[in-house]
Automatic annotation (TrEMBL), chains A, B:
Belongs to the NtaA/SnaA/DszA monooxygenase family. It comes from the Bacteria. The keyword NAD does not apply. Residues 31-385 form the Luciferase-like domain. Keywords: Flavoprotein, FMN, Monooxygenase, Oxidoreductase. Gene3D superfamilies: Luciferase-like domain. It comes from Nocardia acididurans. Pfam families: Bac_luciferase. This is LLM class flavin-dependent oxidoreductase.
Length: 448, 448
């Protein structure tokens, strides 16, 4: 990674036995493994065999009444990643956690803990939780307002960073001779008092190997992009065409200078659901097998939530009913717009739309040979539409194995991806150093 | 365990490199291992070699300004236990978590996750967080009132139980043929609306192997005992003499019938810090080595917090200053009283008191041969002062190894402790079955 422009980043976005809605019904998966921690540990090892930067787990704090999702996150991601950490040595471990329904102190501590346990491999996908079902589980009558959620997210993350910084790396002394465990002058009380939070600090965890987890963001609305530009180091996003990808990429990067950051400080990783086979025809046939297994019942409930209209009684072979404007959506704005535009542009019936969304809920699906997949990634990368990719295997573990064992070698041959790990931390895979405490810096300045 | 009256329970209460305040300064420990997850995984394996019921981690949500503790919990317990789960197969995994500074939905989910990851070995030590330092990290100006904390704890636990029960064990269908992932009639919306919480449910996790974690409680105040009598399945407690132990034991057990429970439904586990050596003289000398390593500085700060008076400027060789009454203490009431009575009864100077508390912060310390330790445990058990013990090794891993390899074999020979595991879940070690959902029972009643 001597030239960060030349190689790209690969994250494995893992979900149950695969991203495809119907993955668990397909013979390539063993459906009961959604409940088996060993399945996930194995996925971690496969990702590591492919020298991927990281594995990543999404999360939602509700399943809703009558089980809207048929692939649900059984495990709380940080706990699950702690179990995966002990099965792996290099691969980064990114967990989703909500700033809307957590306390900063608890969450900062949890990620510090994961970073310690994994020897510096933790990442945090920061989300604001855009579903009504989640709001109902935390005492709300409706989704908290979109703008307010992002305001809270910003204060939350700024505070979490201070909490991680409350311990300088030199704070731990552990000198049995003098009996000094920690140097109190290097452990900082914050006395933080902001609009939403008051926290004295310090954090109850010594500084972790990376200083703080890699900060990742995954909302693409206006507020989401602004938040990412200020605070994130990587962005997951759903982009359907190379042109849209380029636009999003330029848009995000152009926001960075306002925060004193440069284009390299924030990596953009669009998602891709790859169906891989020996020939393109076989890959397309494989994708079709999955599409054919979708239960419209579940899919309609998910789509209804996403679009803010009740489609459960809507005719499958009719076009969508009129949809609200993005401004009326309090949940995920960018995904709403992506799906709305897709349906309108391609004049899809509800059934066709469900088929298109089955693979990755709006993320781009590509069926092809290993070479075709590699060509596509290279094209996006070279066109300035991506700094790397969020690989979303439609079925697991097979879909991840195919990517790691068939696509990654091609990317390596082309010099687009690392052939071995050159670091043991997630920040290291991104070419970043561990972060020192902001308070340590001040002190040096003060004594200089 | 055919006769639960005849054998007892053993929990390993683990802390850093040992319970003794000065453990990390003693040559029997490697101080840097407080930061090493492999140290803790090894402890799990040692406990399992001894067929112990469980390992347990305490937790506090603050270190306070200027680092009051010299042995701090680096890792968040649930995350740490997920890492230990993958290094072990049988031993129970008990994590402390606060009902005062968590959300019921998040915590219920975390324990469900640990129970899934460990195949049914999770336990929850329910605490209400009695320190001011913790309150300051969560937006409070003072410790929330003791009685209110326990009221919240009660509502919290009742709600957590409902959340775990929101999925019946038969809810997961996973039938690829019909495409039915979960049976929505067996996943229950709660629409819970109580004094402090409103949660719609269901939980975002299928029922875990044990149905719910083993519920453990560790406060011994009047409110704490009442709470335990109603909701806990095991109680950790600090009792200094066999007579006090008997009184506490009878007191707790006598409260159970009021809640429709019998004496066997709640196990009482007093703590013991064992110093083990070939001869009693050697064991006492070993204990003295640890006492001599205590830094009064740290110890005074801890004692000040515990007693609610500032002792940091107090003469070490003077008796304690006048102390407040228990009713004025908003933190841990029972520990306050235990320490106050100890100091008064034995007319201790501050220095002597610090020495006595060094091993286990008020828990009983016993220095002796393996036989003496075994005799003592047997005496407490047979006198009706304990259903088992919370073993608190003063240094780690050595102190746990000595207990497992030298004391456990004697207990086994005497028929007081299991020779092998007869179950793979923590509830199983307690002779309990997995718990079925309360909603499943109702349904059967309704259709009967
Ligand atoms: C790859 C990817 C993963 C995401 N994962 C989650 C997740 O796990 N949990 C969540 O609440 N939101 C997740 N989101 C974000 C939501 O989809 C949604 O964008 C967000 O709640 C609000 O963002 P917006 O309104 O800024 O678009 C993810 C988004 C992307 C692109
Ligand atoms: C063995 C044992 C372990 C305990 N562990 C914790 C702990 O990890 N965290 C905590 O906040 N309180 C813990 N406590 C409880 C406190 O010491 C204190 O008793 C509690 O906060 C309030 O209880 P009380 O006022 O009912 O006595 C523990 C108690 C015992 C006996």
């Amino acid at each position: 990674m001597s030239n960060p422009r030349k190689t790209f980043h690969l994250n494995a976005f893992l979900m149950g036995v695969g991203h495809h809605e119907a993955a668990w019904r397909h013979p390539r998966t063993e459906e009961h493994r959604v409940l088996d921690v060993e399945h996930f540990r194995e996925l971690g090892r496969i990702a590591e065999r492919g020298t991927l930067d990281s594995v990543f787990f999404a999360d939602g704090l509700a399943v809703g009444p009558r089980i809207k999702r048929n692939a649900l996150a059984v495990f709380e991601p940080v706990t699950l990643l702690a179990a995966i950490a002990t099965a792996t040595t290099h691969v980064g471990l990114i967990a989703t956690a909500s700033t809307t329904y957590n306390e900063p102190f608890n969450l900062a501590r949890k990620f510090a803990s994961l970073d310690h346990i994994s020897g510096g491999r933790a990442g945090w996908n920061i989300v604001t939780s855009g579903s009504e079902d989640e709001a109902f589980n935390f005492g709300y009558d409706a989704i908290p307002d979109h703008a307010r959620r992002y305001e809270r997210a910003q204060e939350f993350v700024d505070l979490a960073v201070r909490l991680w910084d409350s311990w300088e790396s030199a704070a731990i002394v552990l000198d049995p001779e003098t009996g000094i465990f920690a140097d109190p002058d290097r452990v900082h009380t914050l006395d933080y008092s902001g609009e939403r939070f008051r926290v004295r600090g310090p954090l109850n965890s010594p500084r972790s190997p990376q200083g703080r987890p890699l900060l990742v963001q995954a909302g693409s609305s206006e507020s989401g992009k602004e938040f990412a530009a200020r605070s994130a180091e990587a962005v997951f996003t759903a982009q359907r065409t190379i042109e849209e990808g380029q636009r999003f990429y330029r848009d995000l990067k152009s926001r960075l200078p306002r925060y004193g950051r440069s284009a390299d400080d924030l990596k953009v990783l669009p998602g891709l659901v790859p169906f891989i086979a020996d020939t393109e025809a076989q890959a397309l046939a494989l994708e079709q097998e999955f599409t054919d297994l979708i239960s419209p019942d579940y899919a309609l409930r998910q789509l209804s939530t996403l679009l803010g209209v009740d489609l459960t009684e809507h005719a499958l072979d009719a076009p969508l009913p009129p949809l609200p404007a993005e401004s009326e959506i309090e949940g995920g704005k960018s995904r709403f717009t992506l799906v709305k535009e897709l349906a309108e542009k391609e004049e899809l019936t509800v059934r066709q739309l469900i088929g298109k969304l089955g693979g990755g809920r709006g993320h781009r699906t590509l069926a092809g040979t290993p070479e075709q997949i590699a060509d596509d990634l290279q094209a996006w990368f070279e066109a300035g539409a991506a700094d790397g990719f969020n690989i979303m295997p439609p079925y697991l573990p097979g879909g991840l194995e195919d990517f790691v064992d068939r696509v990654v070698p091609i990317l390596r041959e082309r010099g687009l991806f690392r052939t071995e790990y050159t670091a043991t931390t997630l920040r290291g895979h991104y070419g970043l150093e561990p972060v020192e405490s902001q308070f340590a810096a001040n002190e040096i300045a003060a004594t200089a």
